[in-house]
């Protein structure tokens, strides 16, 4: 029990560290929509990097260029860490699967499929309703 909790804690801390390092919001924290648009427009001009949340309205062009250079410097290192994390999670998941019997692996697979289906249903319920399709015009017989 303690081992699995420690593993979860390490995983969560790693994800948070990566999120902070890349300047991405965690748990649905959203940036100002106008700032987001400005960051996207600017990123199209400079390449693949975007300003961190809430920076677009605050920084001037010189600061913006410096931030992009910093992101360019750290980008490859962060990519290496993300790739490493993905690999480690894959290894861990495979070792966990190896502990289970074939019947248990099948149960886990089915539970995953049910959860995926439930998420899909929830997503469909929370989506805005689609406007009703127009009925084809009926011919009137006078």
**Poorly predicted tracts of residues:** none
First CA to last CA: what distance?
79 Å
Mean pLDDT: 80
Roughly how much helix do the residues carry, as a percent range? 55-70%
How many helices? 4
Please give the number of β-strands: 0
Helix-and-strand structural type? mainly alpha
The backbone outline, from C-alpha atoms, is flat
Share of residues in strands: under 5%
Order of SSEs = HHHH
Account of the 3D structure:
- This protein is an all-alpha fold and 142 residues long.
- The protein has one domain (22-123).
- The chain has helices spanning 2-22, 33-46, 61-99, 102-126.
Write the layout of secondary structure elements.
Layout: H1 2-22, H2 33-46, H3 61-99, H4 102-126
Features:
142 residues; single chain
């Amino acid at each position: 029990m303690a081992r699995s909790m420690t593993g979860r804690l390490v995983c969560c801390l790693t994800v948070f560290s990566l999120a902070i390092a890349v300047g991405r919001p965690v748990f649905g924290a959203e940036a100002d929509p106008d700032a987001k648009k400005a960051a996207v427009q600017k990123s199209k001009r400079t390449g693949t990097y975007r300003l961190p949340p809430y920076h677009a309205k605050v920084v001037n062009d010189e600061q913006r260029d410096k931030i992009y250079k910093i992101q360019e410097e750290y980008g490859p290192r962060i990519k290496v860490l993300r790739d490493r994390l993905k690999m480690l999670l894959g290894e861990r998941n495979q070792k966990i699967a190896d502990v289970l019997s074939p019947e248990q692996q099948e149960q886990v697979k089915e539970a995953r499929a049910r959860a995926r289906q439930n998420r899909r249903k929830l997503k469909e319920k929370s989506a805005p309703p689609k406007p009703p399709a127009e009925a084809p015009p009926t011919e009137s017989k006078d």
